[in-house]
Amino acid sequence: MTVLGSGEAADLVKAKSVLLESNGRHHHGPEALRAALVDLHDFWLSSRCATLGFGGDGGGVALVAVGALGRRDLCPYSDLDLVLLHDGRKGIETLAEQLWYPLWDAGIGLDHSVRTPGQAVQVATTDLRAALGLLEARHIGGDGTLSGKVRDAVRQAWRAGIRNRFDEIVDTTTERWRRNGDVAHRIEPDLKNGHGGLRDIQLIDALATAQLVDRPSSEVMEARTLLLNVRTELHRRSGRARDVLRAQDADEIAASVGFADVGDRFDLARALSGAARAVAFGAEVGLRQARNALPRRGLAALRRAPVRRPLDSGVVEHGGEVGLARDASAAKDPALVLRVAATAARTGLPISAGTLTRLADTAPELRTPWPRAALAELLALLGTGQAMVDVIESLDRTGLWGRLFPEWGAVRDLPPRDRTHVWTVDRHLVEVCVQAARLTTRVSRPDLLLVGALLHDIGKGRGGDHSVVGESLVRQIGERLGMRGSDVELLAAMVRHHLLLPHTATRRDPEDPATVTRVLDTLRSAVGGDDERVAVLVELLDALAEADSLGTGPGVWSPWRRTLIQGLSGRCLSALDGRPFVEPGPPDPAYKEMIEAVAEDGVPQVRFSTGDDVATVAVALPDGRGALSAAAGVVALHSLQVHTADVAITAADDTGAVAVLTFAVTPRFGGLPDPALVRSDLIRVRGGSLALPEALARKERDYAPSTPEVERTAPPRVLWFDDEASGAVVLELRGTDRIGLLHHVTAALERTGVDLVWARVETLGASIVDSFGIAGAPERAARREIERAVLAAAVARPRA
Question: Can you give the pTM of this predicted structure?
């Protein structure tokens, strides 16, 4: 019988084969198998070192393991990563060949190198991959003092040089994430290299070795165990080194890692998703914390610490992260969590880990119904598009998202049953919302589109038809969010029938009048037979169908599918004979005194009234070109966010026309301004002593995105209607809100010379739907000129 330590690598291969082929009561589970493999290779290698005469301490030659063997997480077909250290002795190459060749001849995968201590430290300072490996170096045989000396020197050099190579670490990590995708949300994840995979845990360890962050949390270490167990079984069952878990292998592997009694590969996929999300979150937070903890040298050490820059009420930017103002309290400010999230998405800045922890510890559940401000912040978050993905993920990892939406637990990490889906169900919902944010200008109710996109599959994971289950759930959610009853009905109908258009268009003849009748009858039944509401619902379902397809996976939204669905929705809308425009009502009678005062002395009047969630700013001033843009600009100048606005022209005792403007507002930061100051600024603007463009430009820069890639998610759009009630032509602008937008748009309209009869402004989260009644009937060329001016004003952005 051959002795394992005799030097024959074939004996190592045979012993390894016995471990992998064991069964019955001798079968090794994945953790036990890894431990046995590490012990097996350690024993063979240390015995080989002894046979070759490496000697002990002071011998000047040592063998160390890096990589999987160095970390003691050797999987069945992991390569051996070995480094032969020496103090410059002669004949080292011959000794190395005596060590490596038996392994090569036996077909064992081997990465190897021969280094002096100086060479090891040098390569660690110039090659990032080699540095990360040497940080995990573990002594196998020979001179232990030499191994320890090199290990300590490499770690010291790593800590000393981390500032200069940190950007390389971030760039390499980001590129790896981009190339390999998310472990948590992919149907066939890369367990080692993907975002949230095993290499991210090694990254956290490396940052901890540099003394920039703490060691991985217990949650991350539990995730590591699951990822390693699955990778171990993947190697064992495939008979080779593989890191991508294919769907066809998952059932057997699920049984091997402890899911045999509770389900199938979908249970494993859900557990892997949760584990990978914990790792990904830990890696992302670790990189941010590490950057902030980098040692400061030279002139940088003399610079003042970052200041706290106000971003919104109770929200500041500090050190490149979104944090809480010193006096902010989630217990006193119900909308604070969502305001922090919306601000982070709007600015492109991450929420600091400390802020997330503080909010998780102190934020109570929102009362039912939510305050209006909380719903507005939710809509603002959902309207940011791609920027919301990481923000929602950070809220979910810290329990805050589940506190807002308890129903989310059923879809969290839930794998899809349909192979066309590339995301878990919860991530799919967020991705569909991202796509919906691009389509908000196609619908008259962008707020319902965004919420419907977020919740359209919320009924999955509970058994039964997910559309029917979801309809019931969103009724509860809509009421909890504080939506009006009619809007809850529309939202429920969206979720119940979100597959109606795609299923009907692809399974029936969309050009058949009977098909259109069938769709309309279904939707009339859902919303009580009101054709105007049916038209809104058709519009929403059309946009949701596109967003749902785009958020499912590549190739799902094809030109053929677009033609069928949009053709069917278009025929449905035509069959409804259009939708009448609802003219804004007359100004509130309570403003009669203001109107009379303006008519008497021509001086603008301003009045504030406060409610539970929003304040109303009423402005009365002599009608004339520039009146609306001046009032809107002064409101923006005082950091007031406009939720709705109405403009009407009236007369007082035949003494002249008076414009009455009412704005529903909330302060973007701090409290409401002094009405007298607002009135004073308005008088100065109208008198020419306050240059509004320059003053407003400074204010806009304060709220501009901090990074150039943070842009609006949907291009603005202009629509034209004929308002038969007033004889005016209606211009409707759909776009993405920003501070000062109403001023710029109304100023553009005024420059074109149009005569505004009335205006109605509505802000729905991050989206706006602004309608302007224009006297007369501008010709087509004039309309194009007006449209160009309005769109130019809508897309212009101040420099950050």
Answer: 0.81
